[in-house]
Amino acid sequence: MAVEQITDPAAWERDVLQSDVPVFADFWAEWCGPCRMVGPMVEELAGDYEGRVKFVKVNVDQAGAIAQKYNIFSIPTLMLFKKGEMVSQQVGAASKDSYRGMIDRALA
Fold it and tell me: I want to staple 93 with a disulfide (CB 3.0 to 4.6 A). Which of 24, 31, 34, 82 is the partner?
C-alpha cells in the first residue's frame, strides 16, 4: 500500500479525520535529515499494516495550515488518528518498533 501525500485541508478532513480505519500521519520536510531516515520505516509499516491502517505524509512546507492546526514545531512528528482524534504522537525520529507500538495500541 502506498503512503498518500496530503497537502490541502480538504484532503486531510476526508482522508484522515473521516477515515474508517486508524491513520498514521508523518509530518516531514524535504530538507529534514531525520525525516529522510523515518520515511523508509513508514513505507515498510504501510506494507505491514495494509488494509488495517492508512498511512499519510504531510510535507509541512506545502501544508502549513495542517501543520499549524496541530502545532507542529519540530519534525519529524508522527501522529496516529483514530475516529478523527489524535490518540498518539511521537516528536522526533524513533525506532520502527516504537511506531509499531503506537499502531498496535490503536488497533487493540
Answer: 34
pTM for the whole structure: 0.94
pLDDT of residue 1: 57
Residue 2, number of CB atoms within 10 A of its CB: 9
Work out the average pLDDT over 52-72.
95
**What is the fold of 4-107?**
Glutaredoxin (3.40.30)
56 belongs to the catalytic site: no
Domain regions of the chain by residue span: 4-107
Q: Are 32 and 76 in contact (CB under 8 A)?
A: yes
Active site residue 35: yes
Q: Which of 35, 58, 75, 102 is catalytic?
A: 35
Which is catalytic among the residues 23, 32, 56, 72? 32
